[in-house]
Amino acid sequence: MKNMLKNKFVGCFLVLACIVSLTACSGSIYKQKKLTKDALTLMGTDMYEEANKKLSEALELGKSDDKVYMDILKCKSLCEFKLGDYEESIKALNELLEKEKSTDNDYKALLVINLSRQAEDMGKAGELLLELTKDKNKSSAYEEALDEFLRALLVQKKSGNYTPLNLEEIRSLNEEQYKKEKTVSNTNNMGMFAYFEEDYDKALVYFEEAKKMFEAEADSESAKLQNIKKSVLFNLASTYEYKLEPQKAIDLFEEYIQTYGEDEEVRHELIFLKSRVKE
User: Fold this and answer.
1) Using N-to-C axis directions, what is the helix angle for 105-118 and 66-82, rounded to 10°?
2) Is there a contact between 224 and 209 (Cβ–Cβ < 8 Å)?
3) Are 16 and 77 in contact (CB under 8 A)?
């Protein structure tokens, strides 16, 4: 049985803004741009290992042009993440943030996700998440970063090795935004906090409210709302599973698959839940 929430669309948020022009460049810069352009093409077809080799080759050519080098780091951080090498992704993101203070918030969110998955330097992850929470221009990956952060803390909490790490201020700011103007997104966030606090009845109220709000949205087909619905469905199903209401969890997981296609983890959960219903 699941004991934590799981976001099912992590990593789909970054629009790589590495617009590569191959004109009027010195030899090494031209080669770096060409390698980066080739890597982006490969990443567009999910060929991350091949793309990563080209990006590593581009980095080895040095830092002839700061902007080109930063673009390579951005691509490298996402490529390593997609390959599951969170340590290398963290390394690229740390260098990127150190050199470019105005880095897009999506990359800060990606760093929070990486740190949370590694359960490494959760203090830094908490600081970054608080910074993202305070920013009026929310990262499109904020909900994913919050979800991964709470999951990592939940594991620590259950093992008895738990430090709140800015969590109360992050929760308070989210609650303030929720009370000011309810949205599908911040309602789902409140459900995640309730789940983390092991108040599953309260979590269900928030998740059900978010689902109703989504279904009433006129532009419910927008990519952002589709991603939030994906999260809400999974969170609802997981919470019902935790509350030992397997049939409701089954119905929601099946709706998830019907809407978003086959998913190995969800399929595994369905097999487990259906075996319990038969007992």
Assistant:
1) 40
2) no
3) no
Tens-of-pLDDT digits for all 279 residues of the chain? 444 455 443 444 454 544 444 444 567 888 898 899 899 999 989 899 999 999 999 999 888 788 888 889 999 999 999 999 999 999 999 999 888 766 688 899 999 999 999 887 888 999 999 999 998 877 778 888 898 898 888 888 888 777 767 889 999 999 999 999 898 888 999 999 999 888 999 999 999 999 898 887 755 556 666 777 888 888 899 899 888 898 999 999 998 888 888 778 888 888 888 887 765
Distance, in Å, from the CA atom of 245 to the CA atom of 226, rounded to the nearest integer, reads 25
Query: What six digits make up the tokens of 19?
Result: 């617009």
Can you read off the two tokens belonging to residue 60?
A: 């080895």
Tokens of 278: 């038969």
Which string of DSSP letters, residue by residue, matches the chain?
Answer: ---S---S-TT-----------SS--HHHHHHHHHHHHHHHHHTTT-HHHHHHHHHHHHHT--SSHHHHHHHHHHHHHHHHHTT-HHHHHHHHHHHHHH-TT--HHHHHHHHHHHHHHT--HHHHHHHHHHHHH-SS--TTHHHHHHHHHHHHHHHHHHT----TTHHHHHHHHHHHHHHS--HHHHHHHHHHHHHTT-HHHHHHHHHHHHHHHHH-TTTTSHHHHHHHHHHHHHHHHHHHHTT-HHHHHHHHHHHHHHH---HHHHHHHHHHHHHHH-
pTM over 0.85? The answer is no
